[in-house]
Amino acid sequence: MTDWPDAWLIIPVFNEGQVVGEVVSDACRTFANVVCVDDGSRDNSVAEIRRTDAHLIRHPVNLGPGAAIQTGLEYARTQPGARYFVTFDADGQHQVHDVETMLERLRSEDVDIVLGTRFRGDASHIPWIKRFVLKTVVSMSPNLRRLGLTDAHNGLRAFNRTVADRMNITLNGMSHASEIISMIAQHRWRVAEEPVMIRYTDYSMHKGQPLINGVNIMFDTMLRNRTDV
Amino acid sequence: MLIQYLLIASSISFLVLFLRKRGTAHTAAGTKLGFVSFAIFSIYAVLRPEDIQLMADWVGVTRGTDLLLYALVVVFTFATLNAYLRFKELELKYARLARTIAIRHVDRPAGANSESAFE
């Protein structure tokens, strides 16, 4: 049995068949509650997830990672006993022991949300171009600077019920990371950062978002809240 | 020249359109009125080109056709933005619909508590 009966791991999955089986089974060894949201994958991701102990939700069409996280969250927060929620990437770049550290902090400290960061401590394992772009994003975002955050687009986040109940991701694509940061600022959630190790494998580098996506993210973020649905 | 002020004013109104909340009956009606008045203006321009030339002289544009071109650019920008925002709205509704369907059919692991949390 695990130490975290009240935590839910939310893993958005899109065409990660090569690695998702191993990543999810590894997570299930530590966490009893794992929900994978398959975002309309065309490969064997679904079959791989079915072999694990994770809950599986399948989007009927591809909607984007932001939408997948929101789906997983809406499912997880209706589950009895759910108190802590974690977003975790399916490509194997995050480590389970980092999640445990973040959850410990949520339990013991006065924080609502803990974000993983690549930039506290040793950042030398991050490819320089990625480091440069991510640093630029931080220096350009007033929210990040005000909240004292160092990493805008880390997929690893742990948060409590207060955050989960109010989180409403409307940007379906990759821009959800910036949207979550704006929500932190808007709702005045108490935020902390935890240094995490990202495993930059050839696989995750290849799957990662192209840096040019930054343009899309900026545009989407600018237009957020202009629509009222 | 007057035309410069008019064009700057229209650019500012696009920005306002971008920045303010949409979806109210007010903005929807405004959009429709805008398009109707543009249609009327276009018909008028076809029937009485000399009046358009006169208007062009008032606002400081050389030719009436140029004035019409400016108006067209303004309306086109507005229509594009409007379509973009509308599309975003629909995308979000579509995501919510897909999500609702997806959550109804969850594959639970064999060992999990089988009782559904959804009433």
Describe this structure in words.
- The complex is a heterodimer of chains A (229) and B (119).
- With 229 residues, chain A is of the alpha/beta class.
- Chain A has one domain (7-224): Spore Coat Polysaccharide Biosynthesis Protein SpsA, Chain A.
- Chain A is built from ten helices and seven strands.
- Chain A has helices at residues 17-30, 45-50, 65-76, 96-108, 128-140, 142-147, 161-166, 176-187, 202-207, 213-223, and strands at residues 7-13, 33-38, 55-58, 84-87, 113-117, 157-160, 191-195.
- A seven-stranded mixed sheet of chain A has the order 3-2-1-4-6-5-7, with helices on both faces.
- Chain A is globular, with a radius of gyration of 16 Å.
- The termini of chain A are far apart.
- The mean pLDDT of chain A is 86.
- By secondary structure, chain B is mainly alpha-helical.
- Helix content of chain B is 78%, strand content 0%.
- Chain B is built from four helices and no strands.
- Chain B has helices spanning 2-19, 25-47, 49-59, 64-104.
- In chain B, helix 3 (49-59) packs across helix 4.
- Chain B is elongated and about 80 Å long.
- The model of chain B is unreliable at 114-119 (pLDDT under 50).
- The chains are: A alpha/beta (229), B mainly alpha (119).
- The A-B interface holds A 35, 37, 50, 52-61, 63-64, 67, 70-71, 74-75, 78-80, 170, 172, 222-223, 225-229 and B 18-24, 85, 88-89, 91-96, 98-99, 101-103, 105-113, 117-118.
Biggest sheet details of chain B: none
Tell me the strand percentage band of chain B: under 5%
Fourth-tier CATH superfamily name of chain A:
Spore Coat Polysaccharide Biosynthesis Protein SpsA, Chain A
Strand order of the largest sheet of chain A: 3-2-1-4-6-5-7
Strand element count of chain A: 7
**CATH top level assignment of chain A:** Alpha Beta
Structural class computed from helices and strand pairing of chain A:
alpha/beta
Order of helices and strands of chain A: EHEHEHEHEHHEHHEHH
Mean pLDDT of chain B equals 81
Give the overall pLDDT of chain A as a whole number.
86
Q: Number of helical runs of chain B?
A: 4
What is the subunit organization of this protein?
A: heterodimer
CATH architecture of chain A: Alpha-Beta Complex
